[in-house]
Amino acid sequence: MDPFKSKNPFGEMGNINHNPLSAEYLDQIKEMMEQYNSVLNEEFWNNIQGISNRGRKKMEGFPIELWESDEELFIQAYIPGVKDTRRIKVSFLSDKKLKIKATQKSEQPTTAKRQLASDFTDSHIERYVKLPYEVETDNYSIHTEAGIVTLIFNKIHRGVKVPFDF
What we know:
Layout: H1 23-39, H2 42-48, E1 64-68, E2 72-78, E3 88-94, E4 97-104, E5 123-130, E6 135-145, E7 148-155
Antiparallel strand pairs: 1-2, 2-7, 3-4, 4-5, 6-7
């Protein structure tokens, strides 16, 4: 029985006079479920709304962007629910690698008296970031605005300066 080529995709299951406990009827249900699962599998559900991970880099923690100027490195991170910079911790693993840890917390509206329900969770999220070059680990700033956390680091310029006064 191929439900995609049949006028009656449920075959004999559409008949009113059937015995739901018969082996034939249960075999038809099993076959129908196998066909359903072969078409509507995990890959189908991942692709149906364009949410497949094929060809995309797996995101760890939260999304970030790296920006630079001549003297500074900027990390912008999208972390909803973090309005206070005290909820963000930066740990340096080296001059070129760091961990950003944030605490997301729901906040009570100023005129609200009590909470009736919540799907929000107070959670900790983190992300390791490999930097393209060394930065000063003891002198940086953090700003938050509309769910975007911006960290600003001073670059460390290493190298030999060659005088040009021959």
